[in-house]
Each structure stands twice: as structure tokens, then as C-alpha cells.
Write a structure and sequence with these properties.
The protein is α/β, with parallel strands linked by helices. It has 2 domains: 150 residues, Rossmann fold; 136 residues, Probable inorganic polyphosphate/atp-NAD kinase, domain 2 (Tumour Suppressor Smad4, Sandwich), CATH 2.60.200.30. It is built from 5 helices and 18 strands. The strands form 3 sheets. It has a 7-stranded mixed sheet, with no helix packed on it. Helix 2 links the parallel strand 4 and strand 5. It is globular.
Length: 305
């Protein structure tokens, strides 16, 4: 019996309703169905009064989500998609992302297209687009104290009401550099249209094998976004006496102490998107972010009375 999965945002009534309907459709068609909420992929935030507990990357998959699963459907917005890939990427499960949220930049279809997309998924009539993910680790006292997968970006930044921070950063075997800024973003091409874009970084097409480093509010005209090969790992030392905060994909994070070290590299796991139509990145940029829209003609000049 073939097996499929459903991951949904359980705080959205429409996602819950559609998840139940999908479950019945798949079972009626002879599929074994496993269900999970996106909460399983949200690692949460540590607190100063709560010790950091390492959650192994391979331990986030929900029961039944394994290499035997043909595909999974995720119902939600971009945040649910990001969390879902953290759950399924180590198993290599391709995801069909259905938008029940607001922006839906990472989703493939809307609810009114779901029936046709489901039929194609069950028939195996689709392409798989692989996107790079990051492995993010916090090292403390020569041991990993926290780690996570991320599809968009890793951000380390100062806490509120603290001064500007200094970061000692080394990319690959290149000479380390010192950056004074409110924070630093390390982004995948997928994440180049997220926080990195808002911080002034370039848009990178998904298939380009690069990562980018973007300072947040740098205190130098020379500290600008850097694009480099994704084969080179990044090491970040917080060269400041203040505690900092690290956030991964906007929904998981931990505190970073002055003696900690961050290690970021391209993960051996990839996000596998189900595409029922040929991927068209520029169309998505146009529809979601307004890139490349035609200029509006200026009004003709009129003579003042």
C-alpha cells in the first residue's frame, strides 16, 4: 500500500478542515496516510532560565514519516512550509506545498488547484525541485549545544537595548573579517527573498550554488552583502561581551554566549519541492514581490493658470 503524509497548521481552521478531507480522499484511493502538525518542526526558543537542549536533526520526523513515504502535502503559509521541511528533509520526502496563508511565496498551489494537484501527485506526474538547506550549529565548550536545519536563513543579532555588536567571521579558509553591525544573516538562495532582501541583500535564483552573508545595519560603508560558493562553511564568533540571539527561519532559535561559536554550512539534506508546473522563479517574483512590473506612465504636463 503506498504511503503519503499530511502536515498542516493546526491553528488555522481551513488547514485543519482540508487536512481531514485530504485524509479521506487518499484513504479512499487506497493510500496509507500519516498526519502531523507543523509544530513538530518548530524548535522553539530557549530562555535564559532554561538550559539549551540539543534536538537532533534526524529526530524531528513524526511517526510514520520515513523513506517509504512517496510524498507529503503541507497545508499552511510559508512558516508551516519551513517547519515541514525541517521534519521531512532528512527522509528525502518531497513536499507539495498548498497555500492557506498570506504570502505563500514557497507554496506551489492554492486551495482551488488542490484536487488536480493531488491527482498528479498520486500518479507521480510531477517534477522535484531541490533547494539547498543550511546546517546551523552552536558550539559551546567543544560540544554542539544546539543545531537545526534551515531553508531560508540564519540570523544572529543583538538583544534589545544593547549596543552594536562585533562579529569575527571566517568564510572557508579565507582570512577572517570583523564586522560591526546589529546582526548578521547567512542565507540560502531561497532565503534571498526573505529577511536578506529586506536587509539589502541581492535576489539569487534558486539554482545558483551560492550562499550569502548580509550584515544588518552595519556601521561601515564597506560592510555589504557578500555572495560566495556554498561549498565553503562559515564560522562566526561573537566578539562582544553581550549575550546575543540566534534565529533560524524565523521560528526557532537560541541564545548565543560570548564564548560560543557558530558553524554554518550547506546541509547534505535538501528541500524537495513537488512542482506540478515548470518552476518559474521570475513569475513568482513578479506576482509576490512586484519585480519587473511595467512602469506607470507619468501624467502629461499641464499648464498652470
Amino acid at each position: 500500500m503506498p504511503k503519503a503524509g499530511i502536515i498542516y497548521n493546526d491553528i488555522k481552521p481551513v488547514a485543519c478542515r482540508v487536512a481531514m478531507e485530504l485524509k479521506e480522499k487518499l484513504r479512499d484511493a487506497g493510500w496509507d496516510v500519516c498526519m502531523a502538525t507543523g509544530v513538530g518542526g518548530i524548535l522553539g526558543y530557549s530562555r535564559p532560565d532554561s538550559p539549551i537542549r540539543r534536538t537532533p536533526i534526524e529526530g524531528l520526523a513524526s511517526p510514520g514519516f520515513d523513506e517509504e513515504m512517496a510524498f507529503a502535502i503541507v497545508l499552511g503559509g510559508d512558516g508551516t512550509v519551513l517547519a515541514a521541511f525541517r521534519q521531512v528533509a532528512p527522509c528525502g520526502i518531497p513536499l507539495l506545498a498548498v497555500n492557506t496563508g498570506h504570502m505563500g511565496f514557497l507554496t506551489e498551489v492554492y486551495l482551488n488547484q488542490l484536487t488536480q494537484a493531488l491527482e498528479r501527485a498520486m500518479a507521480g506526474d510531477y517534477e522535484v525541485e531541490e533547494r539547498a538547506m543550511l546546517l546551523v550549529q552552536v558550539w559551546r565548550d567543544s560540544a554542539i549545544s544546539w543545531e537545526a536545519l534551515c531553508l531560508n536563513e540564519m540570523v544572529i543579532h543583538r538583544e534589545p537595548l544593547t549596543s552594536m555588536c562585533h562579529f569575527e567571521i571566517q568564510v572557508g579558509n579565507h582570512a577572517p573579517v570583523d564586522i560591526a553591525a546589529d546582526g548578521v544573516i547567512v542565507s540560502t538562495p531561497t532565503g534571498s527573498t526573505a529577511y536578506s532582501l529586506s536587509a539589502g541583500g541581492p535576489v539569487v535564483a534558486p539554482g545558483v550554488p551560492v550562499l550569502q552573508l548580509v550584515p544588518i545595519c552595519p556601521h561601515s560603508l564597506a560592510s555589504r552583502a557578500l555572495v560566495f560558493a556554498d561549498t565553503e562553511p562559515v564560522s562566526i564568533l561573537p566578539a562582544t561581551p553581550n549575550q546575543m540571539v540566534m534565529v533560524v527561519d524565523g521560528n526557532a532559535g537560541c541564545y548565543v554566549l560570548p564564548d560560543d561559536r557558530l558553524h554554518i554550512e550547506r546541509s547534505r539534506y535538501s528541500a524537495r519541492f513537488i512542482r506540478v508546473q515548470p518552476p518559474e522563479f521570475f513569475r513568482i517574483l513578479r506576482e509576490k514581490l512586484g519585480w519587473g512590473l511595467p512602469h506607470i506612465a507619468k501624467p502629461t504636463s499641464v499648464e498652470l493658470p
